[in-house]
Amino acid sequence: MGKKIFIFDDNQDILELCSLILEDAGYEIKTSQSSNHIIEQVAEFEPDIILMDNWLPDLGGVEATQMIKKHPVYKNIPVIYFSANNDIKALAETAGADTYLAKPFDIEALETIITSTIGE
Fold first, then answer.
1. What total of structural domains would you count in the chain?
2. Cα 73 from Cα 66, distance rounded (Å)
3. Which of 41, 46, 71, 95 is most buried as measured by Cβ atoms within 10 A of its Cβ?
4. CA-to-CA distance for 101 and 113, rounded, in angstroms?
5. Spacing of C-alpha 19 from chain mean position
6. What CATH number corresponds to the domain at position 72?
7. Is the pTM of this model over 0.90?
8. Torsions phi, psi of 31, nearest 5?
9. Which residue range is the domain that position 11 belongs to?
C-alpha cells in the first residue's frame, strides 16, 4: 500500500485535482474541507503526510497545524503548508509546518515536495 496523504483545503476543485494527481502517483488520499476536530480527523486516517491550506473555515490552517505539532502522537507527521498567500513562508513558520508550497503550483512541484518530504 502506498503512503497516505491527508489534504485539507476548502476548495473542492483543488482537493479533486490533488487527489487525482496523487492517486495516480500511488498514494492513498483523504480530503477534508474543514480543519475542525483536526486531531480526530488525523487519528482516524493516520496519514504519512499532511497538506494544509491556510484558509479553512472556523479553525484556520495555522491553528490546525500548531495543534498537530503539539500533539505527542502526531507531531512527527510532516505538514506541507500550501497557500496563495504572499506571506506563505512566514505563515508556514508560525504554524510550525515542515515546508510549504505556494499556490498556484504545478503538478511536478507538488509531487517533488511530497517525495522529498517523505523521503521516497
1. 1
2. 13
3. 95
4. 8
5. 12
6. 3.40.50.2300
7. yes
8. -125, 155
9. 4-118
